[in-house]
Each structure stands twice: as structure tokens, then as C-alpha cells.
Amino acid sequence: MRKIVSLSLAFLVLLSTTVQAEDSTHVFNQITVKPDADNAGLKLLPGFGALKVADNLGHTRHLVVNAQGDIYTKIMGRVASEKGIIKLHDSKGDGKADVITSFGNYGGTGIAIKNGYLYASSDEEVFRYKLDDKGGVLDTKQPEKIITGLKKGNQHETKSIALDNDGNIYVNIGAYSNSCQIEDRTKGSLGKMPCPILDSAGGIWQFKTNVLNQSYAQGERYATGLRNVVGLDWNSELNELFVMQHGRDQLHDLFPDLYDERANAEKPAETMYAIKKGTNAGWPYVYYDPELNKKMVAPEYGGDAKKESTDPSFSNPTMAFPAHLAPNGLLFYTGNQFPEKYKNGAFIAFHGSWNRAPLPQAGYYVVFVPFEKGKPTGKWEVFADGFSGMEVVTGTRGAAHRPCGLAQGPDGSLYVSDDVKGTIYRIVYNKETK
Amino acid sequence: MKAIKFVVIALIAFLLINNQNSSATQQPSPSTMKASIARGKELYLLQCLACHQVDGGGVPHLNAPLDGSANVKGNNKAKLIKIVLNGLKGEEIEGEAYGNIMAPHKELTDQQIADILTFVRNNWSNKATQITSAEVKAVRAKKK
Q: B51: which chain A residues are within 8 Å (Cβ-Cβ)?
């Protein structure tokens, strides 16, 4: 208890210095932390710097920062006792977490804060914890279980979450299949028609934030035809949900007569969708070809690599990205620290590919897309690279770090989690940094 | 040219191994093991590479590594043969769960499965004994 008091005192001191440092003539927030000498090993654009907030935390997936600057990150997989969610606190104000605590006995990916509650998901449930006025969890042992009984197969089992401003929570329920083949991931096997998975997975479900024990009967299938979504974010400017779909794998392995190894490595696109109630992105019937810029009929459903889909029920993506890069984090930037062009734009954390073999793997980076009123206004560009620690990743295991989650701090810093070693990065902008 | 050479070698090796299987107790000679590994490598590239990767390292949390795996290098050959024949999903391996599935590969011949497994048992840092088509045949016959 005494520790907490002294910590919060230290924090108050820190807060007041930050406030003092603020100069009304400056539009941008002043940063109070120094980047690491090597920018935490990252390659960044001029003016940006990075530091490691913490390291070796385990499989850190998504993360969120409270108004006080404390970080909560969700750990995936089998977790040790009370190690499902890790809280990072920086008592000295140097940006380095020095008070690390944890709670929760379930592994998972999703985590978010909204209106005084911390939300976190296992692979089948969503819980919420009431926060105190310092952004701390009041009762770590007894969260409210708001959602339960979600489908979890042997693939795409993680549940990512996003919240709107009207008391709803959106949960991704990934399809437990690659392309709904009769025999999953088996050469030449055709697709089930209609795909039975879509009744309870392969989409985004909407639930209430304040109702206990909801499941399929209480929720609503908000969007469908999404194979698997890990990165998603509520765009408050547009009041709309945006998601990043992981496109299907193995076009060459499964249909070698139609797709060669190069085609396999470059198709299909990873896709961003603006989601409205009822959006259908078309999985498993179609995929998006980033070279032809068209929705194509999947080979499991009569496609021949050339046949375009003319089905009007399937939405077009907002934007297409290179194949297999695995977008695991999406964040619309609303902070005041980064230059003006970043405002309301999208950061995407790509986990990096595995399904480009035998071609080299790619995409172990964070990219930025400028947006205006919910529409991209330019091409995507690599914002932070160097996570893998190697020039060319030939085998995925070799990558030292893989970007996964994104979060924005109260001062506008961008946080990135890595789920290989459990490194938490903080990226800051400082005109003086070279 | 190389390809033709390879086919010729593979054919010879195939004939050799087939011969050998008729005398079941005989140990495979090093040269047939080498040929089996060479054939297995080609098959690995076609059938296994996508998931298990060039370096045999798999994909963290998704596809199990074959390089360094105790099962792959171990003496329980029947277990390995069954994995290739029947596929695998939802199994924890050395305390790790994998978020993908491995489909059955029943369509591969006994010899092909023997070659692939002999290759993965003797590539990267792995070193282990050969698996023969007779061993694959026996496992395939036993299962329901």
C-alpha cells in the first residue's frame, strides 16, 4: 500500500513536470523520455526515436495504455498463475517500466480500455475489470464475464476486441479453417457449399459491454466473410469499425496447377475493410488479388486464378496490402505528438509472413497509411522496421521480434508489442532527434 | 541435365531399396540412405516446406519445428509415420500449442513417406536412423 502511495506521488511529480514543460505556443506534445541510443534496434523515419519499455515479458499480444501512461498487455497461450495480463508502470519517468505486476489466469490476445473498464479476452470469452480513478484494476480476481462460449478451433482461435462509443463491443471470431475445404488444407479438396463455418465464425460479432454471460444468442453477427481478423480499431472520426483480414494461405500447395510458387507468395492480398452492419468480405468464396486489383473466385469454388467474382454481395476492401504479411494490429492515430500528416491515419503492425516460402519472408514491420475522413489519401509506407533483426528472413523462426499489438499513449507516443520475446517498444517524435 | 541425373539416381536407388525390402532383416546401406535423403528433400520442398519452412524451424505458435524436435529425431518411428499419414491438430508438443493444422498425407506412397521422414531426421541439426518403406507399410496396414 505504502508503495502504491509513493508511486502515485512520484507519478504526480512527473505529471506536474510534464505540465510545466508544456508550452502553449507548441502544437505538439513534448516528449519527456529519451530514445535508446540504438532506437531499440528499429529503423525509423527521420525525427522519430524508439525505446524499449520492457523486455522478455512472454507472448505479449495486444496492449493498451491508460490515461496515466501505464500499459496493460495480454499474454497468449498457456499462462502461468496470475500471468495472463501484465501491467507496466514507469515510476521514474524515463519511459522504462520498473514496476511490473500481473493478474489473470487465461491466455488470449484482445485488450482494450473504455469508459473506466479494462476489457480482455481469452480464446473463448471476454472479461471486464472496473478501473479506479488512477487507471488501476480494482479487483484483479473477479472480473465480470461479459461474453462466453465463443467458437475456438485449431486455427485462428484468438479473439480480438474493439469498442465503439455507444456501449458495444466487437469481437473477431476467426474461421477455424483456411478456405472451408471439405478436407482442410488438403491438395485439390473443394469448398463446402455453403460454408457452414460462417454461422458461428469467420466474422465480427457485436455484443453489449454491460451485459453478463452473452453468447451467440445475445450477440449479433455484425460482419461476415472475414477469414481471420487480429488487428481492428474503432474509427471515432467516422464512427465506424475497421478491420484487417488475414488472407487465405497455400494457393500453390493446394492448387499447384493454377498457382506457381511466385503467385502463391504474392496472392492473395491482406485487406483492410471499413465495416458496416451486414458487411460481407466474401471469404471463403473469393479472395482479393493485389496484382489484378480484383475479387477473384477462390479455386475451391470454381475459380481458375483468372475468374473474377461478380457477386455484388461481397464488399471491396478499403485498401490492399502484400500477401501473407499477417496484419495483427491496427490503430487510428489521434495523438498530438507526431507531425500533422499522422493525425487520423492508420498504423498497421504486420506480424511478418510464413507462407511466402520458398521465396524469402517479408513484412516484419509497422506501416502507416494517411487517412482523411476514413479514406486513405496516399500509399502505405513502412514506418518502423528492423524488428526481425535480419536483412532477409528465410525462416520465420529466425525473426528476433515480430510486431503484434499497437497502442497510443496519453502523450501521443506509439507503443508496439512483440510476441516473440515480449518486448514493448515506444516510438516518439522529437524534431531534435536526428 | 541435373534433373535427368537426379531421376536416374532416384530410379537406381528406388530399385535398390525395393530389392532390399524383399530381404526384410537387412540393414539399409549408407548409399541407399543418402539416396532416400535426396528424394526426401525434393518431396519436402513440395509437401512440407510451406509450413515447416526452409530451415525446418516451423513458425512460432503456428507450425511445429522439425529441426531439433525430440519426436522427429527419436526412436518412435511409428509415431512419426502416423503423423504424416493422419495429420495432426490440437496436440501440444514439448509444451507448445500450435495454431494451425497439419492435413493427412495418405496419398503419398510408403516410399515417399519413408524418404521425407528420413530427410527430416537427417537435415538441419537432426541426425537419426533411416525410415524404410517397409516400416511405413507396416504402420499403414495396422491402423484402422
A: 354
Instruction: Name the least confident of A27-36, A305-314, A337-346.
Output: A27-36
pTM of the model: 0.90
| pLDDT score of B57 more than 90 | yes
Run of H or E residues at B21: helix B2-22
Q: How many angstroms separate the first and last alpha carbons of chain A?
A: 42
Residue type, A141: K
- Mean pLDDT of chain A, nearest integer: 93
Q: Which three cell numbers stand for residue B7?
A: 531421376
**Exposed, middle or buried by CB within 10 Å (0-12, 13-18, 19+), for B141?**
exposed
Place of cell 473477431: A172
CATH 3.20.20.70, applies to A7-433: no
Complete edge-to-edge strand list for the sheet that includes strand A366-369: A43-44, A381-385, A366-369, A346-350, A327-332
Contact state of B57 with A395 under an 8 Å Cβ cutoff: yes
Strand partners, A343: none
Domain boundaries, chain A: 7-433
Q: CB contact, 8 Å: B48 with chain A? A: no
> How far apart are alpha carbons B59 and B57 in whole angstroms?
6
